[in-house]
């Protein structure tokens, strides 16, 4: 019961994890983005921990999960999540992933549907359309460190009005990005650079919610639409006045959509899947 945390060896990596909320409740597993740690989900934990057992973990090479030498793929990161679910005996879980977390969440759902009750894909993609854009960021991280990447990342992550009106919140995120180990950033960025998994989306049978930010230039609405149309029965929600990190910039709206989806997903096994994707804006 309550909060517990630790580090668990999963798929050859040591993953830091934390659990919040009462035992015996449905489990939500949150997976973070590139250049972040599990604290990216603080607003969701605060809103949902009374009703769910919430498990967060730091992607390898991020937060308190150490960097592991060698190249990484999205499948490697999916295997980390699968191992965490199995070793902590969590499954089946409601999986919520943002950006990189959504990418590996797609792979988990395609490979191990038995481990998931539902899948929420926030501000993510199934294909890297311009892999060459990643090379300068990778080389900067490896040669100079994270400092030059912080401000450009914040500009992609949040709209200008949010950055101006929420300086303390943005400063917290600024420190989180800056604290990302450069080798961890580079390894996971290489995994994103090689992302090619649109073809696996048709294999996903888990009830799925796709969330997009209207002003997200990194993973635009059109990309979210592509994912939602490829996954049978997926629901698409477009959140207004949000860029790439919708769970922070529009936390209340994100939490509302997530809560409604989780309630519907709980009934899925008895009512059956929807016939096709639906779209909504908020």
From TrEMBL:
InterPro entries the record matches: AB_hydrolase, AB_hydrolase_1, AB_hydrolase_fold, PcaD/CatD
GO biological process: beta-ketoadipate pathway
A Pfam match: Abhydrolase_1
Residues in AB hydrolase-1 domain copies: 26-249
MF-aspect GO terms: 3-oxoadipate enol-lactonase activity
Protein name: 3-oxoadipate enol-lactonase
Taxon lineage: Bacteria, Pseudomonadati, Pseudomonadota, Alphaproteobacteria, Rhodospirillales
């Amino acid at each position: 019961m309550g909060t517990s945390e630790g580090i668990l060896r999963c798929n050859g990596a040591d993953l830091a994890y934390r659990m919040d909320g009462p035992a015996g409740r449905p489990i939500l597993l949150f997976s973070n983005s590139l250049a972040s740690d599990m604290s990216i989900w603080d607003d969701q934990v605060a809103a949902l921990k009374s009703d769910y057992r919430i498990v967060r973990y730091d992607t390898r090479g991020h937060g308190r999960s150490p960097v592991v030498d060698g190249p990484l793929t999205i499948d490697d990161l999916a295997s980390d999540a699968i191992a965490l679910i199995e070793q902590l005996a969590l499954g089946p879980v409601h999986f919520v992933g943002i950006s990189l977390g959504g990418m590996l969440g797609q792979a988990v759902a395609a490979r191990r549907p038995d481990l998931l009750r539902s899948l929420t894909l926030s501000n993510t993609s199934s294909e890297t359309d311009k892999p060459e854009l990643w090379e300068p960021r990778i080389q900067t991280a490896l040669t100079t460190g994270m400092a030059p990447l912080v401000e450009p990342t914040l500009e992609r992550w949040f709209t200008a009005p949010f950055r101006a009106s929420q300086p303390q919140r943005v400063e917290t995120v600024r420190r989180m990005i800056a604290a990302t180990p450069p080798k961890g950033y580079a390894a996971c960025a290489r995994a994103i650079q090689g992302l090619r998994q649109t073809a696996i989306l048709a294999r996903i049978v888990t009830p799925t919610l796709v969330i997009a930010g209207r002003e997200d230039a990194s993973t635009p609405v059109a990309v979210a639409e592509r994912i939602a149309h490829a996954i049978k029965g997926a629901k698409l929600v477009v959140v207004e006045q949000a860029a790439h990190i919708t769970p922070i910039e529009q936390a209340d709206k994100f939490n509302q959509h997530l809560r409604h989806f989780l309630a519907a997903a709980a009934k899925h096994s008895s009512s059956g899947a929807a016939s096709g994707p639906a779209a909504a804006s908020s």
